[in-house]
Design goal:
With 566 residues, the protein is of the alpha+beta class. Helix content is 26%, strand content 27%. The longest helix has 31 residues.
Length: 566
């Protein structure tokens, strides 16, 4: 009998150990008949003292500014009806709950009904008085925006707002001190071509890692006076008073993902869900539907893990625009698209022993990447080589002209295709450097082709004034825009967050091109000037049936004019 009890005990302990060794989803009960309508892009916060989850507004809510509370102790939902003034209906705001001040705080967002109107106000809900209060906007407040991240840590005293969008993308970071009731600028922002700081974007997933450290993943970088992948795969973290630090690349490209601190590991977060498909993507490695991505912020390393489902309800559906909310010993999930699921889900377990969902390194390819490849072959190789031949190999007549013409026409055609490839998902008025330069050099390349076919022929010595003007425009204008093409390739590589290896390869080719130009230009300028031509025989000494064909040196086959003297 004792052996049987011992065996059963071992089996029970083993089963419990295995259940703790995986990331386990559980659908929490709701013992009330009232449930908040399904929604996405809402505001949320968690009161760790009373174990209350707060949900405010969002897309899909009844009024856009309703406030609900879920009590984890009693498994009940309650719709709160605050007295006094209420925040305007909105979605995609920054929010959080401060247990220090006992306040649920929201800020920024897009107003409902959707009319492309944005706000930068900040409101606090006092749970003791059941009232909303609009906080004063002292200091330099953030520009009105939506799609920002940041928030308010449960042990924090400051609400953070970083990045986001209104009429343009933002890259700055601001902090609202609840004690001083004043905004402070933590990061003034960066330019679209930075590789050491996070570019402007919106709709990224993000959270507060600690009271004064925020992080985010992915988002949309294109549009709004900026450019880049949409969605993206880069992730960043920033502590107050420190610079931004980039994390490793691991999970799929996405936006609208849910991220929350993992309560069992310091300075770590988990991520679930998000939008992985957009018309700007050609291919994206779709995550497993039960995949949980874990980030150790201290080391900057992500890893992909698999979760198991509720014994009855399984794994929650993959969703977009939901929030993950950290509690004292688990992570909660609520809302998102599809909005039919109004349940609260809880994730527990051990990230160290959970099974892997695969290796890191997302497989994704977007239209901007294909655009870049075609532009490198066009403005980086074909057009450059064609101009190089025309400059230094004119003595190989008529071969130089045929090669020059073929390379330039091919380069312009590839450039046209490259522009077509970047249009899906990014059709907008050019309003940042890379796009403006790109449009200008493409228009000039078309003009060069037309101008080449309509050129005035070199039929006199010295050439006509019209020919002189044409050569000046064709040669020097072409060289200027070839230089701008090289500059724009560098801008494009930084814009799409190209891998370091790709940038190194391009820099090596660029250095080789510059070296070739220097060597051949030196040879061109230091070539020995030929002496006077030997005396020619008089015309009378030439046999009557002979002829001399005199070519106009330095012109193409099509420009050559032969004079026959009998």
């Amino acid at each position: 009998m004792g052996r049987i009890i011992l065996l059963l005990s071992i089996i029970l302990v083993s089963s419990l150990s295995q259940s703790l060794a995986v990331l386990q989803w559980r659908r929490l009960p709701n013992v009330t008949t009232t449930t908040p309508p399904g929604r996405r892009d809402y505001g949320t916060g968690y009161d760790v003292v009373n174990r209350h989850l707060y949900v405010f507004g969002g897309r899909g809510s009844t009024s856009g500014n309703d406030l609900w509370r879920y009590d984890l102790n009693s498994s009940t939902w309650t719709e709160l009806r605050p007295t006094g003034s209420l925040p305007a209906a909105r979605f995609s705001m920054v929010s959080g709950y401060s247990s220090v001040f006992n306040l649920f705080v929201i800020a920024t967002g897009e107003l409902l009904p959707r009319a492309k109107k944005f706000t930068n106000d900040i409101w606090a809900y006092n749970v003791s008085t059941n009232r909303w209060v609009e906080l004063p906007a002292r200091g330099v407040a953030p520009e009105s925006r939506y799609g920002a991240t940041g928030g308010l840590h449960t042990n924090g005293t400051s609400l953070y707002v970083t990045h986001g969008f209104s009429r343009r993308r933002y890259s700055n970071t601001l902090r609202y001190d609840l004690a001083q009731m004043r905004w402070f600028t933590e990061f003034a922002g960066t330019h679209p071509y930075s590789r050491t700081q996070p570019k402007a974007r919106c709709l990224q997933g993000g959270t507060m890692v600690s009271p004064d450290e925020t992080m985010f993943y992915g988002g949309c970088l294109s549009g709004g006076r900026s450019g880049g992948p949409c969605p993206s795969v880069d992730s960043w973290s920033k502590r107050r008073g420190s610079s931004w630090r980039q994390m490793s690349v691991c999970a799929s490209a996405r936006q609208f993902s849910g991220i929350a601190p993992w309560p069992h590991s310091p300075r770590s977060v988990v991520m679930f869900g998000g939008q992985e498909s957009r018309k700007s993507l050609i291919f994206n490695l779709i995550a497993e539907r039960n995949e949980i991505d874990f980030l150790n912020v201290a080391t900057g390393e992500w890893k992909r893990l698999l979760s198991t489902g509720d014994p009855v309800y399984g794994v929650p559906a993959w969703r977009v625009g939901a929030h993950l909310i950290a509690t004292e010993n688990s992570v909660l999930l609520f809302g998102g698209d599809p909005q039919s699921d109004t349940s609260v889900w809880e994730l527990t377990g051990d990230v160290d022993t959970a099974p892997s969902a695969g290796t890191c390194g997302p497989v994704w390819f977007a239209w901007p990447h294909l655009h870049g490849m075609f532009m490198i072959f066009s403005w980086g190789i074909l057009l450059q080589v064609g101009a190089f031949i025309a400059r230094y190999f004119r003595h190989k007549d008529p071969l130089w002209f045929r090669l020059h013409q073929a390379l330039q026409l091919s380069g312009v055609l590839l450039g046209f295709l490259g522009i077509c490839f970047v249009l899906p998902g990014t059709l907008a008025v050019p309003n940042f450097a890379h796009s403006i330069i790109g449009v200008l050099i493409f228009l000039w390349s078309v003009q060069q082709v037309i101008n080449g076919f309509l050129r005035p022929h070199k039929d006199s010595d010295p050439p006509s004034q019209k020919r002189v003007y044409w050569e000046y425009v064709h040669k020097f204008g072409g060289r200027l825009f070839l230089f701008l093409g090289l500059v724009n390739i560098f801008l494009g590589l930084f814009l799409v967050i190209a891998p370091t290896a790709v940038i190194i390869i391009w820099c090596i080719f660029f250095a080789f091109l510059v070296l070739a130009y220097c060597v051949f230009e030196y040879r061109e300028r230091t070539a020995t000037v030929p002496g006077p031509a030997p005396a020619q025989r008089s015309v009378s000494s030439v046999p009557i049936k002979s002829c001399v064909v005199v070519h106009d040196v330095g012109t193409s086959e099509s420009d050559s004019k032969a004079q026959i003297h009998m």
